[in-house]
Amino acid sequence: MLLPWFNRLIPGLVVSTLLVTITPVLAQPASFDALEDITYWTDLCRLQATAEEYEKALAACEQAIALEPENPDIWAQHSGILIKLKAFADAIASANRALTFDPENSLAIAYQCVAYTALGENETALDKCNNALRVNGNWGSETPTLAWFYRGEILSQAKQYELALVAYERTLLQDPENSLVLTRQCEAYVALERPQSALEVCGSALSIDKNWGDIGPALAWTYQGQAHSQLNQYNQAIFAYDQAIGLDPKNALTWAAQGQVLETLRRDQEALVSYNQAVALKADYTLALLGQCTLLNRLGSYEPALAACDAAIEGDGDWGHQTLAKGWNQRSIALTGAQHYEEALASINRAVGIQPDYVAAHNHRSTILWYLGRYVEALAANQQAINLDKTYAPAWFTRGVIFRATEQYSHALAAYNQALALNPFSDWGWTNRSLVLWELEQYTEALHSAERAIALNSESVQAWYNKGVTLAAMGEYRGAIATYDQVLALDATHANALTGRGIAWFNLNDYVAATADLKAALALNPDNVLAQNTLKALTATQSTETLSTPIPPPPPS
After folding, report:
1. Does 311 fall in a domain?
2. In Å, how far are 6, 348, 489, 500, 501 from 478, measured between CA atoms?
3. What distance in Å separates the CA atoms of residue 447 and residue 454, rounded to the nearest whole number?
4. How many CA atoms lie within 13 A of 487 on its CB side?
5. Repeat: present as a keyword of the record (predicted)?
6. How many structural domains compose the chain?
7. Is 354 part of a structural domain of the chain?
8. Is 131 exposed, middle or buried (0-12, 13-18, 19+ CB in 10 A)?
9. For residue range 80-98, what is the model confidence (pLDDT) as tens digits?
10. How many CB atoms lie within 10 A of CB 81?
11. pLDDT in tens, 211-222
């Protein structure tokens, strides 16, 4: 791809206003004699190129070459025009002709650098730019900034950002008010995760606001947004992305970057909209497709998530700061959500095979093995995750789940304690801790854990339900009933909550209310054995007019 700054850097294509105003005078030869006037044809070539009439400029240059076929400057100018026409191989050949007659024509060598860059032959291009700077011979009406800039571009594409920054700095020494070069510098600082430096140079680019080439200020706003994001300044990042999108709504990079910030802020629906926009603009954009997959997994839309992950893996390979391993991990999460556990295991094996130190992938692998009932393997995979990072709270939560499944409740409690020490803000963790404490008959602590979960997420059905079950186990039936009321306010079809409330009413000798709840529970789930047995006990109690031993509540979830 031809890089945008080339418009400014080719000698003869940017000329003074005085020369531009005389273009109509030179548009046709003034006389027959002018046809063999080398100055006439070289001027016409330059001016028509300035007017972006490249075919005509090429013809004029070739007239000049016919008159002076060994003039290296004309061949160099011819090479520059061929680059504008995207005839890169021909441009290289013309530059070679210039070098035949002037081996130290740095401009011709620099044009070869530009052409090879456009052809994607970056190693050769870098050699040419380096050679142009080493020779430092005839630059025509240009300066070494042409070679320095393209050297920076090539090094940046090769992810050699420190060296690219040196090249951009050399460019700015001679052209300090160039917003394009400053923006490229900003991009390199973002890639190096040096956000303060990035903000400074992007700010300078926007403040100077000139010499943008073909990119315009939108890209500077985008990189500024990424720098703010690296500093966890998410509101400033969103403002920057809004500015960029306002200037250029068709830049997929900006939409994807905005999606990442919104994803971090858990503004899931907004993030998904941003990723969707990025994919609409660039259908094979791996980073945006991965964002779609991640958000759809988070929202529980597993089949669309799977399609997005497959597209990401087959996409353009631009993962940004993400990795192919994350693509396979998210694919595995989608398959797990869709209950395709064997396929999910195959995908997560790909993830850990690609990146053996991927802690989250090892943890998810242990979760899949837990779903498959392969508890020994699940625990081994979980141990791998913990060995890689003992501070990774999700691995300790998973460990608790595995130990509970094997009825090792004390070990499960220890795992949950460790997890919550690392992340005390997990309502899910406190909910599960309440469950194992209930199993251990430590009801006061179980109640405390359930209440901690509710304080973090007052809409957690499981947390409210576990609180109700625990209160019932403690014999606090009226408190249990009030808690089950809250569960049913959140989920009117919660059969176990109806069963638990029915049992609580039964234990309070309110048989009418108990019968109503138990029948409602059986209407939702006719196979609810506890509701069936309690209803039978209730009938027996009413017929004999004697009280039964208190019936225990259903287990927590």
Report:
1. no
2. 79, 47, 17, 12, 9
3. 11
4. 27
5. yes
6. 2
7. no
8. middle
9. 999 999 999 999 999 999 9
10. 28
11. 998 889 999 999
